[in-house]
Amino acid sequence: MSHYDTPLTFKSGITIANRLIMSPMTTQQSFYNGTVTRDEIQYYVDRAKGLGAVITGAANVQALGKGWPGELSIASDDMLPQLHALASAIQAQGAKAIVQIFHAGRMTHEATLGGVQPVSASAVAALRPDAEVPRAMTIAEIHETVQAFGQATRRAIEAGFDGVELHGANTYLLQQFFSPHSNRRTDEYGGTREKRYRFVDEVLQSVFAAVKQYAKRPFLVGYRVSPEEFETPGIRFDDTLWLLDQLKVTDLDYVHLSLKDYSRVSRDEQHNQQSMLAYAHNQLAGKLPLIGVGGVRTRADVTAVLENAELVAVGQQLLYDPTWAVKLATGADDAMLQVPFKEAVKFAPLSTPLHDFAASFYTR
Ligand SMILES: Cc1cc2nc3c(=O)[nH]c(=O)nc-3n(C[C@H](O)[C@H](O)[C@H](O)COP(=O)(O)O)c2cc1C
């Protein structure tokens, strides 16, 4: 087990100063078209000190991939100047800057897309009260989206970020293709687990190709996964272990297991003897570093996560307590603001809708 205050060098050559990472958290502070705002940059600057890396909130790679108003966009070159300002502001605090890239798929609304119907792997609505029925993507659209992930990666490189995290978690498009609930396709992108993985694989290849073509210095690529779904059919923990086997032989730099609680145990009776984080860590077998997340509030939590992961992501504690990482480094644990798990989001920059909105991120 590593102490949190030790550096880590990823496969790509990027070194981070310590194992603490700001978990990706959208605060809906971007302009209507997804351009980064000054308030948003300040939000990251206020929290970046003392962290090894900051992962930004999700940024959509295509217009149709926008999940909510105020979301970051990386879908056009027009975003580059402000994305550059964001990356360099984070780096000026001593942290590496990673932008999370994604497509919301069916987890959005026509209203958010300017009256256009959301798309997904298949025309199946999510099991949420306000879910809309999406339109199944054509093969040509799938290819365009695969390319869009590559283009977003190129923009991240040009904007000066140190890496991208592919958001394959929290029920968005990458997860929707892998899930037997949202993917009912009968072509080469659906059916067996292997075929449902095809879209993920093509996106990864597109992203790696962009890194190879455009990056002139080390640039990392991470992947975020949600370990199980409640829907039937749905992703089971066994599918996730299989997915980790696929991911660990790619050029990825890390895997990030998205959990509300790092000690959470699977519903799968074959895998309920230890936490999902511990199983995922065993499955990766040291081939890729793992980020653990979910409910980290104290030094003891950091230590507990590092028993089953190489890196620790911290979300709400940093929302509420921006200098928490500095307090940890200086032994000022008594000054840490100990907030109840669900309460922290009330103090997020956009308070009223954000509490409910944040609840949607508490997946699995
Ligand atoms: C306000 C808010 C926004 C979030 N936005 C994202 C996001 O854009 N992408 C993502 O992968 N997870 C997002 N999450 C989930 C967090 O990254 C994290 O996994 C979750 O909050 C659990 O960790 P924590 O207990 O440290 O907050 C968000 C969470 C919150 C509270």
Low-confidence stretches: 343-364
Question: What name goes with the CATH superfamily?
Answer: Aldolase class I
- Cα-atom Rg, whole angstroms? 19 Å
Secondary-structure-based class equals: alpha/beta
Helix content: 25-40%
CATH architecture: Alpha-Beta Barrel
The molecules bound to the chains, other than polymers, are:
flavin mononucleotide
| Mean pLDDT over the residues | 94
Count of helices? 11
**SSE ordering:** EEEHEEHEEEHEHHEHEHEHEHHH
CATH-assigned fold name: TIM Barrel
Q: How many strand units?
A: 13
Shape: globular
Largest sheet data:
8 strands, parallel, barrel
Just give the CATH class. Alpha Beta
Measured between the Cα atoms of the first and last residue, the distance is 26 Å
Strand content: 5-15%
What is the topological layout?
Elements: E1 8-9, E2 15-16, E3 20-22, H1 38-48, E4 53-60, E5 72-73, H2 80-91, E6 96-102, E7 119-120, E8 135-136, H3 139-158, E9 163-168, H4 173-178, H5 193-214, E10 220-225, H6 237-247, E11 254-257, H7 276-284, E12 290-293, H8 299-306, E13 311-314, H9 316-320, H10 324-329, H11 352-359
Bound molecules: flavin mononucleotide (FMN).
Plain-language structure description:
The structure is a single chain. The chain has a single domain, classed as Aldolase class I (TIM Barrel). It is built from 11 helices and 13 strands. Mean pLDDT is 94; it is low at 343-364. Helix 6 (237-247) packs parallel to helix 7 (276-284). The chain is an alpha/beta fold and 364 residues long. It binds flavin mononucleotide. Flavin mononucleotide is lined by residues 23-26, 57-58, 100, 167, 169-170, 224, 258, 260, 293-296, 314-317, 345, 348, 354, 358, 361. The site of flavin mononucleotide (FMN) has 26 residues, from strand 4, helix 9 and helix 11.
